[in-house]
Amino acid sequence: MQLNKWVIEVKCIFVQELEVTPKIELVDWIQKLGLAGHFEKEIDEFLQNIFVSAQNFNKFSVQDNMHVSTLCFRLLRQHGYHVFPADILSNLFDVTDNSFSSDAKDITELLEATHLSLDGEKVLDDAKKFAINWLKDAVNNKQLIPKYVIERVVHALELPSHWRVPWFDVKWHVKQYQTKKHMDSVLLELSKLNFNITQAKLQKEVKELSRYQ
């Protein structure tokens, strides 16, 4: 079956890819594209390795990368790991500094991460206010931001990704993934096929249930 073949190919990426950044981004896209159920073991092992490594060396290897550090923080918290903002997001303490990132994608990921804040985490509360204001200004002023990035910004401002019903957002994320500069064609085709198969199953179940009404 083609779906199983593509699943195996994507699983190989987890083994072949040694860099942390591409793997973190891969995990994020797998979840957004509705494929997490096919890669639960790989995702759990990868996040566990990141967390354990950070505990052993008292530092996360992605701290110097704004986009990836916020993404890493969000994924770990979503999966139940007890990480603190200072563990990964040390650069957030300078969010009001003029030298802070002016990349819309970075600020969008920052906003997504801040929605996972806990009571008393002032640094995340401040970062959320900063991100919302920055992104609203960027959209209103139509700064030099590509259309597909503006779509992501508006999407994030409307509602955090982890508050949404994941399945209803898959088609939107597939469209976004197609705009990615270095997107993986196998992952893209797998997401489309998986969506069609799952959608067909759901429609069949609804049809069968309607018979009993």
Task: Name its key features.
Glycosyltransferase; Terpene_synthase-like; 213 residues
Structure report:
The model has no long low-confidence stretch (mean pLDDT 86). It contains ten helices and no strands. The longest helix is centred in the C-terminal third of the chain and has 26 residues, at 185-210. The chain has one domain: Terpene synthase, N-terminal domain (Glycosyltransferase, Alpha/alpha barrel). With 213 residues, it is mostly helical. It is globular. 68% of the residues lie in helices and 0% in strands. α1 packs across α10 and α9 packs antiparallel against α10. It has helices at 2-16, 20-32, 40-57, 66-78, 85-88, 104-114, 122-141, 147-158, 166-178, 185-210.
